[in-house]
């Protein structure tokens, strides 16, 4: 059968040599991905009247300080891939964090401890390609900065050099202040992260709200002040009582970005997957859901499956067709073959 089909096609090709057709339709790639428009899509970014950061203005570490001083709340979301990063950036979010939470959200690890520098870097590069306006932060994974300062510096440098990240984030307070100074000395801005620090899960004995007792509060204050004095660009406050976050925010010059730390922080960060029900687990108290992407995907996938099984997909208008001349030529060849076969 294959040889008859081949010979028919060869005959048809000869009969039609020199004809062109369907050029535009055929230029479609299997997966067509939109490129950046020439100019940033300014109209997509909601611009609040009070916004200090102009719609098309590149966000820098200086913008964060300006926003703190101007009492303009700072927004931050995680992103781990090109498409999501683009959507988040084009929606006007000021900071995009490639968090080590990608260990769970993207790679299916049980916690953040397993993710490596190379895995992080792979995602930072993808996100970088999707971000134009937001400040891009890369999370230093567990083991990349705890062993020795030289290695920490090398790893931070990799995020900047290979991933074009603009800030690196490091968990820990007072005890990391010296290292953070060295990294800033190497011209790399640092975001601190104190309170519930997921890389310390085994030491904390679980993911527990921190700073509920007086000694915990004093430690958090010391941590925040140490980071501020070290010159951090901002400090993530995770899983601490609202009252403590408010005290820290009032005390330090660096903008505080809260996650489960109440509304008095200078900004708020959430994990993208939490916003859209993509975590396969009940959400924490501080999470607000803005959509149910899990439901959307499940429904769409089930509909696709049902359409294929019932021969409803693809329809004729979802198929490519021969140009009219080719079809006529092919019909002629087929008719001739049939006649010869008798
Ligand atoms: O890894 C992460 O997503 C984070 C945020 C929760 C701040 O560190």
First-last Cα distance: 18 Å
Which structural class do you get from the secondary structure elements?
alpha/beta
Main sheet makeup: 8 strands, parallel, barrel
Mean pLDDT: 90
Reading off the top of the CATH hierarchy, the class of the largest domain is best stated as Alpha Beta
Gross CATH architecture of the largest domain: Alpha-Beta Barrel
Helicity level: 40-55%
Listed once per kind, the bound small molecules are: 3-methyl-2-oxobutanoic acid
Approximate shape: elongated
Q: Uncertain segments of ≥5 residues (pLDDT<50)?
A: 1-6, 15-24
- Strand arrangement in the largest pleated sheet: 1-2-3-4-5-6-7-8
Task: Kindly state the number of beta strands.
Answer: 8
In short:
With 342 residues, the chain is α/β, with parallel strands linked by helices. The protein has two domains: 45-275, Phosphoenolpyruvate-binding domains (TIM Barrel, Alpha-Beta Barrel), CATH 3.20.20; 292-342. The chain contains 14 helices and eight strands.
Write a structural description.
The chain has 342 residues and is α/β, with parallel strands linked by helices. It has 2 domains: 45-275, Alpha-Beta Barrel (TIM Barrel), CATH 3.20.20; 292-342. It has helices at residues 2-16, 23-26, 61-69, 82-90, 102-105, 117-130, 149-161, 177-185, 201-204, 214-230, 242-251, 272-275, 293-309, 324-341; strands at 74-78, 95-98, 135-139, 167-171, 190-195, 234-238, 256-259, 267-270. It has an 8-stranded parallel beta barrel, surrounded by 7 helices. The two termini are 18 Å apart. The relative contact order is 0.11. Bound molecules: 3-methyl-2-oxobutanoic acid (KIV). Residues 78, 97, 99-101, 139, 236, 238, 259, 269, 271 line the site of 3-methyl-2-oxobutanoic acid (KIV).
């Amino acid at each position: 059968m294959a040889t008859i089909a081949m010979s028919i096609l060869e005959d048809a090709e000869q009969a039609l040599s020199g004809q062109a057709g369907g050029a535009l339709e055929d230029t479609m790639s299997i997966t067509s991905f939109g490129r950046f428009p020439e100019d940033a899509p300014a109209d997509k970014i909601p611009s609040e009247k009070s916004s200090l950061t102009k719609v098309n203005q590149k966000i820098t570490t200086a913008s964060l300080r300006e926003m703190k001083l101007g009492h303009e709340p700072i927004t931050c979301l995680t992103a781990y891939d090109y498409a999501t990063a683009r959507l988040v950036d084009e929606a006007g979010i000021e900071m995009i964090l490639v968090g080590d939470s990608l260990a769970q959200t993207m790679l299916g690890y049980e916690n953040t401890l397993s993710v490596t520098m190379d895995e992080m870097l792979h995602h930072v590069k993808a996100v970088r390609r999707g971000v134009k306006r937001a400040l891009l932060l890369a999370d230093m994974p567990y083991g990349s900065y705890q062993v020795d300062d030289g290695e920490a510096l090398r790893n931070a440098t990799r995020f900047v050099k290979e991933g074009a990240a603009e800030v690196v984030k490091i968990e820990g307070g007072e005890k990391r202040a010296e290292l953070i100074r060295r990294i800033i000395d190497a011209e790399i801005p640092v975001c601190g992260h104190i309170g519930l620090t997921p890389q310390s899960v085994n030491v904390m004995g679980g993911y527990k709200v921190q700073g509920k007792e007086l000694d915990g509060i004093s430690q958090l204050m010391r941590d925040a002040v140490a980071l501020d004095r070290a010159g951090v660009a901002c400090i993530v406050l995770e899983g601490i009582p609202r009252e403590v976050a408010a005290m820290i925010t009032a005390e330090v010059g660096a903008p505080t970005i809260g996650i489960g730390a109440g509304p008095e922080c200078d900004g708020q960060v959430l994990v993208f997957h939490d916003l859209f029900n993509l975590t396969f687990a009940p959400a924490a108290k501080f999470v607000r859901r803005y959509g149910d992407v899990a439901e959307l995907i499940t429904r769409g996938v089930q509909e696709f499956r049902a359409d294929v099984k019932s021969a409803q997909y693809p329809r004729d208008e979802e198929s490519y067709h021969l140009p009219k001349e080719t079809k006529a030529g092919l019909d002629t060849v087929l008719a001739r073959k049939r006649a010869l076969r008798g």
